[in-house]
Design goal:
With 261 residues, the chain is α+β, with helices and mostly antiparallel strands. It contains ten helices and four strands. Strands 1, 2, 3 and 4 form a four-stranded antiparallel sheet that branches. The longest helix has 35 residues.
């Protein structure tokens, strides 16, 4: 996990309970909250017969996921048009990931409304992945019954107050890492390698991932991943990711993250 991602998740977890969330818009369909266990799963290779109707939220969740992703992408672009691709990607991903959607679903009291088989009710309703799916399925029904404008207004009422909090917290982290990468007097990659090979430090390993080119072809960035293993039960293994204009700068950034977190 990158330092930025860890901080972004913490900001969202702290912010959601303080938000004045918009009320859920009433919808007629209850399919959005029906888990596959509620009526029993029937699997088809391509599509069910004309006479069969969906009995769970899976198709709706698929649509809601796409609608949510597009609305959040547009919102980020409209409010912060100068954000670089790497920052946009991180911010969008953390705003729409299952962890965030589970927290929103919980804030709305959705888990207890999920329809499941009686035997699995407790485990399914407390599953963050299911909670996130139900929230996305609700968005799809909201779109189907009330249209795109109502959906957009609902989502923006949630995310417009949340987005500035996230930006304000992440900007210093990105800038500090960028500054560290530009400081030629400090070899962050070398320092990380020294940390891994320190005398008496058994089990420390640093894995360098291959560079991945991202962004537009005329101004590409490079994404680098690093995995740090620590053979110590009190310390977790960690993964870091950085995006920069060159492979060398990206490596310096993730080495900085690894050493500073």
């Amino acid at each position: 996990m990158t330092a930025q991602l860890a901080r972004a998740r913490a900001v969202i977890a702290e912010a959601i309970p303080t938000l004045s969330l918009p009320s859920l818009v009433p919808v007629q369909s209850e399919l959005w909250r029906q888990h596959v266990s509620y009526r029993g799963a029937v699997h088809w290779k391509f599509e069910p017969p004309e006479t069969d109707e969906p009995t769970d939220y899976e198709r709706l969740e698929h649509v809601g996921d796409a609608l949510l992703g597009s609305e959040v992408t547009l919102l980020v672009h409209e409010l912060y048009p100068k954000l670089v691709v790497g920052a946009r990607a991180l911010i969008k991903s953390v705003l729409i990931e299952n962890l965030t959607l589970s927290q929103l679903a919980t804030a709305y009291g959705l888990p207890s409304t999920i329809l499941t088989s009686a035997a699995q009710s407790a485990s399914i309703q407390s599953n963050p992945g299911v909670q996130a799916c139900v929230f996305e399925a609700y968005l799809a029904v909201l779109h189907d019954e009330h249209g795109p404008t109502t959906l957009r207004d609902f989502l923006r009422a949630i995310y417009e107050p949340l987005l500035p909090k996230l930006i304000d917290e992440l900007r210093p982290l990105f800038l500090s890492a960028e500054a560290a990468a530009e400081d030629s007097s400090v070899n962050w990659v070398g320092r990380l390698c020294e940390w891994a090979t320190q005398k008496g430090a058994v089990g420390r390993k640093v894995h360098f991932g291959p560079p991945d080119r991202v962004g537009p072809s005329h101004a590409p960035d490079w994404r680098i991943q690093c995995h740090v293993e620590v053979q110590d039960a009190s310390l977790p293994n960690r993964s870091f990711e950085a995006v920069a204009s060159s492979v060398a700068r990206a490596k310096s950034m993730w080495a900085f993250f690894a050493l500073e977190t």
